[in-house]
Write a structure and sequence with these properties.
Elements (H helix, E strand, L loop, with lengths): L1 E6 L2 E6 L9 E10 L2 H7 L12 E2 L3 E9 L11 E5 L7 E5 L3 E3 L6 H4 L3 H14 L7 E5 L4 H12 L4 E5 L3 H5 L8 E3 L6 H8 L5 E6 L6 H7 E9 L12 H6 L3 E4 L7 H20 L7 E6 L3 H9 L6 E5 L2
Parallel strand pairs: 9-10, 9-12, 10-11, 12-13, 13-14, 15-16
Antiparallel strand pairs: 1-2, 1-4, 3-5, 3-7, 3-16, 5-6, 6-8
Helix pairs in contact: 3-4, 3-9, 6-7
Length: 323
Amino acid sequence: MKAYVYGPDGARISDVAQPKPEGTQVLVRVRACGLNRADTGMRKGHAHGAAGGVGTVLGMEWAGEVAELGPDAKGVKIGDRIMGSGGAAFAEYTLADHGRLFRAPSNMNFEEAATLPVALATMHNAVVTIGGVQPGQAVLIQGASSGVGLMAMQIAKLKGARLVIGSSTDAYRRGRLKEYGADLAVDSSDPKWVDAVLEATGGEGVDLIVDQVSGKVANQNLAATKILGRIVNVGRLGGTHADFNFDLHAARRISYVGVTFRTRTIAEVRAIFEEVRKDIWGAVEARKLQLPIDKVYAFDQIDQAFEHMEANKHLGKIVVTLP
């Protein structure tokens, strides 16, 4: 089968053996894939948790059809339309654990379905399970114009947040955040963005920040969070190291939690997917939670898709389709 593989000379479409499902695995005939920021690093040879390096089939999000079941796989049957996340997505066939997939709603095509699994799982966990958002609260999403950021704002609104603030350093994308749930959009590269957040919250700060940036905004986040507020760190687009004001952190008694899928067990991931199904799946089927598709590429144009992502001018998801 054809797959997008990282090799000694970089990533390229290559012929590899078709995988065989074992245990609780499902073999998926992939029809569309969503690109994610982590894919850009792995395409350059960087590790993402335990994954990466020479011989790695890249990609982590897909939609397609069940082609074969492992002996212990349950909940789906051959031919079902599904979407999910996991490694080796950029291929004609991939494997997925039966607990790490969703049924693709009948009112979505494969391209639309491929945009959702990572965003839904990541941001329901960050905003609801870990972030504990409650009706009437104020929420700030750092890096809100990414696919997961747009989803985070929508989930916060769905759960009753009174005020949703999104950040983006790009003026065009910042201007479109209100289409996806933002009541206020701020530029996190502007030193005065904290003042805007405090003004919007009556001087108190927000109840919850979901931070995909970290790095240089870490101390500003502390200043923008209310006493007994919460910060959930899901990314490091602003760098992996930075100064941190421990005194302000302690004075505001902020709960600061880091989350990632890279160190989670399959049992933990299954639980996250189950929470999405139980809590917000009706909103997904009703298309109240959806992401814009910025551009669609054919599989043989996958390098161009990555170039488009690395240009950092897109809003929403970039999708690659397979025949």
